[in-house]
Amino acid sequence: MSGVKSLAKDTAIYGVSSILGRFLNWCLVPLYTIMFPAAEYGVVTYLYSIVALALVVLIYGMETGFFRFANHERYSDPMEVYSTSLISLGVTSSVFIIAVLLFLSPISESLECAGHESYVALMAATVAIDAFTAIPFSLLRFKHRPMRFATLRFINIALNIGLNLLFILVCPWLWRQAPATISWFYNPDYGIGYIFLANFISSVINLVLLLPELHGFAWKFNRKLWREMLAYSFPLLILGIAGIMNQTIDKILLPDLVTDKSEAMTQLGIYGANYKIAIVMVMFIQAFRFAYEPFIFAQNKEKGESRMQSYRDAMKWFVIFAMVIFLGVTYYLDFLRYFISPRYFSGLKVVPIIMLAEFFFGVFFNLSLWYKLTDRTHWGMWFSLLGLLVTLALNVALVPRMGYMGCAWAALGCYGVMMVTSYFVGLKKYPIGYDVKRLMLYFAIAMGLYAAAIWIATDNRWIDIPLRTVMLGLYIFMVLKVERVNIKQLLPINSILRRLKPSKP
Prior knowledge:
This protein is mainly α and 505 residues long. The protein contains 22 helices and no strands. It starts with a helix and ends in a 5-residue tail after the last helix.
């Protein structure tokens, strides 16, 4: 149980940088949706979908490979693993950015950015930097230094947000009032390009702040180790490509699948903006992931039933917290929707579907421990490829008829299939003994309460919101009762009273 407490602690710290940081980035969405038409925001959504795919390719599974071999019994020096990983990513990232710059014009044209080559150049450089810095961030996780990890992440996000506000709000105002003060660097016609410029500058500064993690050790490249890491990580690369395509292929394909081409980017902008509301679930899963990978490899060194119980407890509490987040977002969507412009409200109906899809992905990520611990990462590759086939088939079948709603249902079907398949294969290959009945109970109760909130809705938020708050509290209360958690122990009231009580003379 102590291992799960450590996991929860690290998840909470990683969550501060991930959830708070993404929340602040999330707050940029209303700025984008107000300042830019849906079609222009659709271009941003499209390019960032390509960027997400490129980042996975450039990391090629080396993050997980680093954790595996840094804990490997045959390699006693984790820093040798770290150095080998750094050199590998440094070389491939450099080759990538050189190749993009050499073929910038044709690449830009293929990405619907003809005439805006600087957008592509900036994002390529940003991806190359972020891929390289993934390993220093992994070292911080390996050394259990979540505070430094969180601080650097937060600085990066704060810089990005500050630069966005500068370029999109402050500079246009100064251009109208005193153009001479900013004319040397600001071009009002650059528009959404400043979103990409802000991202690039913050990534460069982040690289500088990571310099302490780039010296103080012997730079060595172990070819034998590198080949083993590639053999281990290659299936994870395929898994990652398929996984990120499951997340982004809908946004890449939508412009080609919508019948009315003039509306394609507008639909993509609406879908992308509402997807951002559902990103709360993604933030939780990412925070959990940052803590979970080091946790499972460290727990694997333990023997006996306690190790398996730690894995079961991790899954259980993941499901519980994820369902609290799902209910919280869907119950208070009447307020959360104002994070985007009212012009985008027509897409709010995708939020519950996307959140459930991301929840299924989170469960799939929990289940992935069996093939990572047994070095059978090829199974993860097959699961993700299966999910990709489902994604492609459902998008092609549904998007022409349903528009962006087809994208949402395709995501749900994809992650549902991956989750179920991974569970049943893992049941035979590496049985953990999850309490499936209890997990299903928590999920069913949450879905029942969600359906009840829709059924009793009065369209009066001053009645609906208090009722939903009571229902959310009811869910938390029922979970605590089933888990036999002493609610009084969770509240600091008794501890505070004991401290305030005067001591006897």
